[in-house]
Amino acid sequence: MKVSLSVIPITLIPMLTACGGGGGGGGAGATASPAPSYSRCEAGACTWDLPEGHILSTADMAKIASQLATGPVTVNIESGNLQIKEPLSTDASQRLTFHVPGNLYIDAPITLSGSEGKLVLEYGQAEVSYHNPADYYLTAPINLPAGPSLSTCLGHDCETVDYTVITELGEPSHALATPTPMTLQGIGTALHANYALGANIDAHATANWNLGDHDDDTGTPEQPMGFTPHGTYLPGDHPDQEREDASFTGILEGLGHTVSGLFINRQGSGDAGLFGSVKSGKLRNLGMLDVSITGDRSAGGLTGYYWGDNSTIYRLTSQERISHCYTTGTVKARAYAGGISGYFGEGILENSFSSATVEAGNPGSGTYAGGLTGRLSNTAIVRNSYATGPVTTTAPYANAGGLVGSTRTSTIQQSFSTGKVSGDGSIGGLVGYTSFGLVQENSFWATDSSGQASSDSNDTSATGKLLVELLSSDVLDTLNSDSIEPVWTNHDGATTPMLLAGPGSVHVRPEIEADASTAMAYQPVTRLAQLQAIQQAPAGTYALLNDIDASASHSWNPG
C-alpha cells in the first residue's frame, strides 16, 4: 500500500515549546524497580484496578491490547478522573470497558477494528446520574466497527445508552429505505435512535446526488439536490402536528470524526444541514468540513433548525445541546443561516466553533445570519464558542452578527467572533439585534476584522477589541474566568483564542500585526494525528504551532 501526500500551504508559527530532554533516571549501578501489576485475569476476562492519578503507559496499553486478544477487559480507577494519553489498537472482537468515578479524558486514538469489538464508557460512577457533572472528553478519535459497538453510562444508577455505529456515507436511496440502513444517509429513517461515527466519512459524492427541482421553480433546470437532511421542523399550526415528531430526537456522537464535503442544494424546501431539524437531541464531538449547504427557511453547517423543550431547559438537561462541534465551508438560506445551526432555541450550544462563510437573503422580511447561528431564541445559551467566518445578508432590514444574527431572551457567555459582517439593517460585530433581553457575559468581537465598531444597539455588555488585542492574556483570562479548569488557550499570545479540547480556527500574530483586515484564519496543528488529517482537506490553510514527535509513524501503513 502506498500513502499519497498532498503538498499544501502551511503557515509555520515560531516554536512555542521545545521538546524536553527528560530527566535522568539515576546514576551508574542504579537498579530499576519492577513495574507494579494492576491487572488480574480470570477465565479469559481481565480487570485493571488503577490507583488515583495513574496514567496508562505505552506498555500498559500494549498489555491491554494483548489481553483483548483472549477476552474482555475492564479498566477501573480508584477515584477521580482517568486520562488516556497513549494509543490503543486491536483487531480483537472483544469488549473494552473504562469504569471511571469522575471524568474520562481520551487524548490518544483508540481503535477497535474487530467486527464484534465494543467500547463501553462508564463515567461519573461515584455519583448518581441526576445532576451529575461528569463527562468524557475527546481530543483524539475513537475508531469502531459498524454496528452496536458503543455504549455509554453516566452515574452508578444509569440507564445504559446504546449506539448504532456508522462508518459509511451510504447511497441516495438510503434516505427512505427500510429497514434502516447502517449509513449516514440512513439515519433519517429512524429519527429517534442514537448513532455514533466510527470513522471519518467522505461525503463529496453527494454533490451528484438526487437530480431534481432544487428551488421549487419549474422554469429552472434541474440540479443535484445532494444529501437528504434528517428531520423536518413542524410548527404548531402545521396540519400534521399531531403525527409523530418529524425532527431528530436522538444522539449523534461523532467520536472525534469528521464528515467532509457534504453537499445540500434545497432552495425550495424547508431546513438544510446534516440534520434539517433537531428537537431536544444531542450532537457532539463532530466536525463538518468543507460543507456546501443551501436551504430555504433555514440552513446550518450541522443543523438547519434546533429546538429544545422550554419546560426542561431550566434543569439544563444533558440531552439538549450541541457540544464540541465545528464546521467549515459555506452555508446559505433565505431566513435563518448559521455556521452551526440556522435557528437555535431552548438548548445549549457550547465548546464549538465555525469558520464557515454564512449568507442569508430573504426578499421579504425576517432574515437572520450569524457565524454560529442566525437566530438564538427562547432561553437558549451559547457559551465557550466562537466564529471566524464572514457573515453577509443580501436582504433589506436584515439581522446579522459575527456570532449571532438576532437574539431573544437568551444568553451568550465566554464567546467571541472575528469575521467580517456586512449587510443592510441591524448589523453588529457580535450580535445584530436583540429583542426582549440578552445576557452577554465576558464576550468579545474584533472591531477591525469585522468592520463593525458596535454590536447590537440594544445591548452594550459585549466588548469590542482590535484583533491584535484578542491575543492578550487579559482576554484569555476573561474567557476562562467562569471555568474550573481552563477551556481556552492562545498559545502564549501567538494566536487568537481557541478551545483546548479539539481542533480550532485561529488568526496568527505575524499576519495580525502586518494587516488585521487581511489576516487569514488557520486550522491549528499541534499533534501528529492532526498533521496526518491534513490529507482529508488538502485545500485548507494550517498553522503548525509546536514541535511534533512523529516517531510513532514508523510503524504506520506497512506494505
Describe the protein's architecture and organization.
The N and C termini lie close together (5 Å). Strand 43 (444-446), helix 2 and strand 44 (463-465) form a beta-alpha-beta unit. This protein has a 29-stranded mixed beta sheet that branches. A six-stranded parallel beta sheet has the order 21-24-27-32-37-41, with no helix packed on it. It has a three-stranded parallel beta sheet with strand order 1-48-47. The model is unreliable at 1-34 (pLDDT under 50). The protein is mainly beta and 559 residues long. It is built from five helices and 48 strands. Helices cover 6% and strands 37% of the residues. The longest helix is centred in the first third of the chain and has 11 residues, at 58-68.
Q: How many DSSP-defined strands? A: 48
What is the averaged pLDDT score? 87
Percent of residues in helices: under 10%
User: Please, how many helices?
Assistant: 5
Distance between the termini: 5 Å
Largest sheet: 29 strands, mixed
Unreliable segments of 5+ consecutive residues:
1-34
Query: In what range is the share of β-strand residues?
Result: 35-45%
Which structural class do the helices and strands define? mainly beta
Q: Based on CA inertia axes, which overall geometry fits?
A: globular
Element layout with pairings:
Layout: E1 10-12, E2 39-42, E3 45-50, H1 58-68, E4 73-77, E5 82-84, E6 88-90, E7 95-99, E8 104-106, E9 110-112, E10 118-123, E11 136-138, E12 142-143, E13 147-154, E14 161-166, E15 194-197, E16 201-202, E17 211-212, E18 223-224, E19 251-260, E20 263-265, E21 271-272, E22 275-279, E23 282-294, E24 298-300, E25 303-307, E26 321-333, E27 336-338, E28 341-345, E29 348-350, E30 353-354, E31 357-360, E32 368-370, E33 373-377, E34 381-383, E35 386-387, E36 391-393, E37 398-401, E38 404-413, E39 416-417, E40 421-422, E41 425-428, E42 431-441, E43 444-446, H2 447-450, E44 463-465, H3 473-479, E45 488-489, E46 498-499, H4 509-514, E47 523-525, H5 528-533, E48 542-544
Parallel strand pairs: 1-48, 3-4, 4-7, 5-8, 6-9, 7-10, 8-11, 9-12, 10-13, 14-15, 15-19, 16-19, 19-23, 20-23, 21-24, 22-25, 23-26, 24-27, 25-28, 26-29, 26-30, 26-31, 27-32, 28-33, 29-34, 30-35, 31-36, 32-37, 33-38, 34-38, 35-39, 36-40, 37-41, 38-42, 39-43, 43-44, 47-48
Antiparallel strand pairs: 2-3, 13-14, 17-18, 45-46
